[in-house]
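Input sequence (152 aa), recorded before submission:
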Amino acid sequence: MSNVRNVSGQDSYDTRGIILANSAEIDFLDPVVINATGFLERAAAGQKIQGWFMGARVVAAADNETVAQVKGYFQESSDEQMITLEADQACTQTDVGAYADIAVAAGSVTVNLPAGVSGQLEVVDFDPERTGATTIVVCKVAEPQYLAFAQV
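Predicted structure, token format:
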């Protein structure tokens, strides 16, 4: 499960339900994408983020797309929404304002620091509670899936 929470943005969001991809493994508040065949799955590094999974941990069957057709529910990401995520290492002031990708390992989603010039997320702040927890970063989605389109 990701360590994600809203720190800014509207208080409630509508959820959408889409059939989970075959063998999809998604946990509460993991970033999700709608894949090329129209099914919901957890986002990987480099993919544009559609939103945040709103259900309990689920592992879809290998034939979910055609047999059980279990849906996953998610909140669309929004421009004003800021979230907290755990980073793979301590965040420093030089990471603020830079971009970073997510990393997925052993079912856990983290922010892959140090931040750079491109990435799925923009690092906005770190240690939001001011407790010295420099591995907790505040981020915004920098590459939302709803802006993905074929260029001509």
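Checked by second reader. The mean pLDDT is 87.
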